[in-house]
Amino acid sequence: MLTKEKLNKTIQTLPDTFTIDELIDQLIFMEKIEEGFQESEQGKVISNEDVKSMIDKWSK
Questions:
Q1: Is the CB of residue 2 less than 8 Å from the CB of residue 30?
Q2: Residue 23, C-beta contacts closer than 8 angstroms, at least 6 positions apart
Q3: Whole-number pLDDT of residue 42
Q4: Is the Cβ–Cβ distance between 3 and 35 less than 8 Å?
Q5: Interval 29-57: pLDDT, tens
Q6: What is the mean pLDDT of residues 14-39?
Q7: Separation CA 32–CA 2 (nearest Å)
Q8: Nearest-angstrom CA–CA distance, 32 and 3
């Protein structure tokens, strides 16, 4: 979940002028990163070996 503190830090990194689309893109990016961290903490991960195996199956 995003916090006001994280949001404020992100806004500070934006240029002095930006579009609403750029802000929304940045917010979506932040949300996806947070979701990834949460999934990782919950053990919802796939090993590199498993991913390589999946890719090998797709290329055959």
A1: yes
A2: 11, 14
A3: 96
A4: no
A5: 999 999 999 999 999 999 999 999 999 99
A6: 93
A7: 10
A8: 14
For the entire predicted model, the pTM comes to 0.67
Nearest to 23 by CA among 36, 38, 34, 7: 7
pLDDT of residue 6: 87
Residue 39 in contact with residue 45, Cβ under 8 Å?
A: yes
Question: In terms of Cα–Cα distance, which of 36, 12, 16, 33 is closest to 4?
Answer: 12
Instruction: Provide the 3-class DSSP secondary structure of residue 2.
Output: coil
What beta strand segments (E) does the chain contain?
A: none
pLDDT recorded at residue 32: 94
From CA 20, how far away is CA 39, in angstroms rounded? Answer: 29
